[in-house]
Specification:
single chain, mainly alpha, 4 helices, about 65% helix, about 0% strand
């Protein structure tokens, strides 16, 4: 069975472009927060159990309460960012 590809180009309007840019900012912020949390936990006690992505996803509502502008972010992209940061941090350790 041959594989077929399809190239698609989208043309978002100004509001959509702004939302995409803001989601990159939100994801970068979550990445930095989670990475800082993991490094501080390890620095304080290296023998403490490692947090997985599911445990970190449970921290997202608290972060959204603290930083109310995070409520505008796509929740699934924040969860994916959590997952990616955990995978990278595991490789570093």
């Amino acid at each position: 069975m041959p594989l077929k590809g399809l190239k698609v180009r989208i043309y978002p309007n100004k509001v959509q472009r702004l939302k995409v840019k803001l989601n990159f900012v939100y994801n970068r912020f979550i990445w930095n927060q989670i990475l800082n949390l993991l490094m501080e936990r390890y620095k304080n006690n290296p023998k403490i159990p490692f947090l997985n992505a599911h445990a970190l996803n449970n921290l997202l509502p608290a972060l959204k309460k603290e930083f109310t502008w995070l409520k505008n972010a796509e929740s699934t992209s924040l969860q994916a960012t959590n997952h990616d940061s955990v995978e990278v941090y595991k490789k570093v350790l």
